[in-house]
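Q: I'm building a small set of examples for a reading group on sequence design. Run inverse folding on the following structure and report the sequence directly after it, with nothing in between.
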């Protein structure tokens, strides 16, 4: 079992990265070694701030891997920096564990391959330059020693387990070592292949090559999964899966399982709206006679303008509402209601809408645009998966973030702006009548069924619908065009899809493209300014023209998922519709250019027929 990490800072990341890239259970590549973010049980809780979003909290409590005991969301541990590198701020942060724990000496005359637990490597952390932390191997008589680098391979399984690459067993697959095995790593000199590495035992002379673990018959050379969760420092009792070798830092080694919500104003009078906005502080008031001093201490001067009895009555009413056990929580429905009714929607410091005309040249196909001048988004990390991404058909095996049922989860709040684009329901229904049941969309539907069957998932879960493919493809085409026009990086523009077919509740057909970043980008009106009818009409026209022809055509246009194809998209690739995965809700799946415009495939199911 790994030792508890020491309180020494070895690097830094942004709070938003804990939600999307380097969350609990993910590996972080530092300049000289690699670490894994530890579970919530080891976090420095006193230095965390509470993030309030009641709608999201109620929804996350219903997640089977979370539970109703969840009490709050919290930000990352943080203290303001001082000039003294030995103050408490330098020992405050997110705990990490060295992983993989197997290191290889960079000295070409040594090349020792051993675990940190062997005590052969010494950790050196410069107090004033923690990003230069490194492990040293004193293999020479002179100098401070050679830098030890992480062994660049690990193993994982679809259930979310991850483990060290079995170096000793892999090297001795023909039989056990005759003595105490001492391993040495070497490069095979085969050029740019990432698997051009071998391992040999100095004791018995046996040798094996890593590329065998990635080729055919790899199940014969890799062991059964041991059920290890390094971030929790524990093993599950039994895992039926075979391990899969992967490169350290591979894109499928960690996928965030998240829930997010926009902060929309509460209904009712001004008092109820203020109580909702400041509920994180107000819910701590125990009785009416303590309300006034706590309001003064909390800096809630606006609430002091109301009679204290009325404030307390509203607090009690909201507390009773939040304690009721909801059967289900709809996060998108209330947001949709506000976005499609901007003239009657509420306003707050974190939510303000303004409606403008439809994009020029797209009347009847695109509804009037709604400009979201102010937005606040709260994203909560509820778990993670490996090998298969969440949203790839709606399911993933989710790994918990703590050893016990969590009473809090990490979250981040960001503020920005956005454009809400909606397609008229009559136009969408007319297109669905033409597109439903066609060969291309049926191929995508069948691919989803095969994807679920191969993973033993529920085959009864419904097809997300043709309109989702249409909305998703249009959102990606517009994201790429916006990034070219205004200078926003595509990764700083996110999508939020609102898709619901008639008969399943209120019909929805729209998407919100928004910038929600913790820094200043995306908060100065740059995206809202592109929502003017003439500008957005030109951008939309350019996006559709680009979608007609891809640089990889005809291969891209003709692509459709087949029997031996794990993809869940049609005519789309990195040269046309794909966007960074932090921008996409569905992992670049359910995309097809042919539903937007006519392509070389000649499918004749395009939505925009009169514009091209």
């Amino acid at each position: 079992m790994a030792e508890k990490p020491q309180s020494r800072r070895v690097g830094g990341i942004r709070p938003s990265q804990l939600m999307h890239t380097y969350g609990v259970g993910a590996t972080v590549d530092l300049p000289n070694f690699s670490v894994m973010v530890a579970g919530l049980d080891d976090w420095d809780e006193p230095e965390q701030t509470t993030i309030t979003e009641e709608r999201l909290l109620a929804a996350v409590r219903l997640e089977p891997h979370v539970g109703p005991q969840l009490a709050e969301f919290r930000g990352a541990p943080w203290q303001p920096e001082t000039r003294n590198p030995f103050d408490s701020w330098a020992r405050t942060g997110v705990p990490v564990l060295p992983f993989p724990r197997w290191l290889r000496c960079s000295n070409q005359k040594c090349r020792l391959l051993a675990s940190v637990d062997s005590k052969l490597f010494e950790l050196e952390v410069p107090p004033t330059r923690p990003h230069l932390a490194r492990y040293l191997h004193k293999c020479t008589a002179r100098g401070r020693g050679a830098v030890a680098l992480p062994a660049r391979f690990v193993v994982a399984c679809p259930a979310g387990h991850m483990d060290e690459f079995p170096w000793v067993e892999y090297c001795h697959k023909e039989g056990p070592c005759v003595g105490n095995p001492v391993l040495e790593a070497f490069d095979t000199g085969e050029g740019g292949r990432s698997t051009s590495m071998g391992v040999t035992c100095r004791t018995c002379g046996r040798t094996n090559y890593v590329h065998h673990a990635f080729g055919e018959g790899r199940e014969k050379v890799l062991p059964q999964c041991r059920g290890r969760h390094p971030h929790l420092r524990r093993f599950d009792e039994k895992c039926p899966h075979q391990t899969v070798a992967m490169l350290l830092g591979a894109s499928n080694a960690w996928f965030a399982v998240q829930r997010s919500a926009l902060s929309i104003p509460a209904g009712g009078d001004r008092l109820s709206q203020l109580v909702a906005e400041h509920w994180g502080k107000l819910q701590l008031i125990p009785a009416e006679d303590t309300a006034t001093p706590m309001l003064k201490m909390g800096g809630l001067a606006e609430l002091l303008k109301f009679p204290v009895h009325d404030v307390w009555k509203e607090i009690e009413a909201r507390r009773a509402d939040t304690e009721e056990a909801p059967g289900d929580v709809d996060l998108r429905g209330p947001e949709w209601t506000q976005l499609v009714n901007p003239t009657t929607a509420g306003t707050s410091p974190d939510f303000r809408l303004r409606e403008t005309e439809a994009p020029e040249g797209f009347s009847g196909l695109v509804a009037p645009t709604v400009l979201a001048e102010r937005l606040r988004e709260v994203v909560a990390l509820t778990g993670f998966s490996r090998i298969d991404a969440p949203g790839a058909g709606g399911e993933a095996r989710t790994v918990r973030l703590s050893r016990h049922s969590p009473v809090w989860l990490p979250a981040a709040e960001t503020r920005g702006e956005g454009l809400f684009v909606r397609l008229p329901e009559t136009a969408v229904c007319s297109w669905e009548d033409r597109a439903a049941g066609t060969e291309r969309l049926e191929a995508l539907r069948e691919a989803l069924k095969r994807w679920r069957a191969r993973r033993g998932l529920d085959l009864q879960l419904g097809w997300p619908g043709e309109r989702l493919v249409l909305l998703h493809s249009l959102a990606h085409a517009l994201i790429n065009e916006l990034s070219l026009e205004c200078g926003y990086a595509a990764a700083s523009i996110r999508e939020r899809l609102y898709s619901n077919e008639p008969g399943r509740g209120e019909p929805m057909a729209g998407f919100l493209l928004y910038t929600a970043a913790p820094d200043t980008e995306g908060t100065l009106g740059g995206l809202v300014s592109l929502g003017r009818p003439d500008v957005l009409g030109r951008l939309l026209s350019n996006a559709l023209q680009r979608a007609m022809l891809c640089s990889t055509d005809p291969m891209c246009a003709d692509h459709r998922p087949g029997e031996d194809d794990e993809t869940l998209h049609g005519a789309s690739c990195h040269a046309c519709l794909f966007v960074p995965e932090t921008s996409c809700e569905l992992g670049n799946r359910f995309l097809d250019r042919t539903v937007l415009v006519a392509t070389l495939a000649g499918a004749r199911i395009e939505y925009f027929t009169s514009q091209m």
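Residues 466-486 form the longest helix (21 residues).
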